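Researcher: Predict the fold of Formimidoylglutamate deiminase.
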Amino acid sequence: MSTLHFGSALLPSGWADDVQVVVADGTITKVTAGTAPGADDERHQLAIPGIASLHSHAFQRGMAGLAETRGNTADTFWTWRETMYRFALEMTPEDTEAVATLLYVEMLEQGYTRVGEFHYLHHDHDGTPYANPAEMATRIARAAEVTGIGLTLLPSFYAHGSFGGAAPHAGQRRFICSIDQFAKLIAATEVAVRELPGANVGIAPHSLRAVTPDELTAIIPLAEGRPVHIHAAEQIREVEECIAWSGRRPVEWLLEHAPVDRRWCLIHATHTTATEIAALARSGAVAGLCPITEASLGDGIFPTREFLDAGGRFGVGTDSNVLVGVADELRQLEYGQRLKHRERNVLSGGPGISTGRALFDAAMAGGARALAQPIVGLQPGARADIVTLDTTHPSLGGRSRDTVLDGWIFAAGSGAVACVWAGGNKVVEGGHHRLRQKARDAFNSTVRRLIA
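Model: Structure tokens for Formimidoylglutamate deiminase follow.
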């Protein structure tokens, strides 16, 4: 058991002063506000809950920055994808573990304490399943275990190259599963995370491009009430091809033909109509927004204000992991809306409300729903995921409560996260994860070889 004391802390009920938090077996057991620190309490100035990156492709951290040279044709998501395929085809299980380990170190250093790993790099280089169908998933679980980050592992079902059951691309061979193979993969993944505290498993039909309606119907029962994540409407071309195939837009098709509810997370949903936005909000599903990746890939801007006005929920994800940071995603989300609407503080929700606080609260709640975490935040029963901010940082100095969040998200850049507890274990201190150098060394050795 350990006891922490914070001069100020963001609780579910709002900010409170002189907060004592008791942690046992990785869980918060008691929270008391307005109390003086005990003699043995570990003391810090300001604490907030850790939040989730609800959508990550860990292996792509290794190729960050490698697709920034323009080719001879228009450079789009579709040309970026070819670079991604080439990189994915080279990776061994050991490479995947090394890359994921550094990524999770970086996530924790930036304030993420859980990751939703949308995992589709399954098989050996030639597409042959490993003897353990969850060999690659096991490597992801190991990376989560050694770094301490909470894990929701979402094995992806990927069977086709485009709508209507088109044959897969050669570069996709490491992703492809039959329904039977996917069922075995899910079972093996459950074994892989069985001893990992707080870990859970969902399923991720990759997209309507990669899954036929019959296959979607067949695999949904494998979720058994757990999270279901799917890419949808990320690109205009995807929308156009979906209409040509079905007469419906991707989100429209899903809402009409799939059992979309609060268990579901639609990743991106960038190109949606007002009718789709209203229906998606009513469904209870979470919009999984990845603003940095969506900007990097030229996807477009999700109609976030309209979705929130309709009662929708969102969380944020790091997706391609080209840049990792809670503040970075939330800032990019708001700035995209500012550019779209040519206004400021678009997502604050109303006059007098801190935009940083509104973004943080919404992303924490949406990420928790998308990853099936019923209790989050600084309250009894929640996993002890706690982040302290450095109130001496130039962008945080002299600020308190919501203005600290505003300073962190919109002004601090980097270096504002001081300490992080994940599942009750202090894994980041002074802004550095305990495995930072070891993880960097292994990552650098791996990536140098892959690039060569």
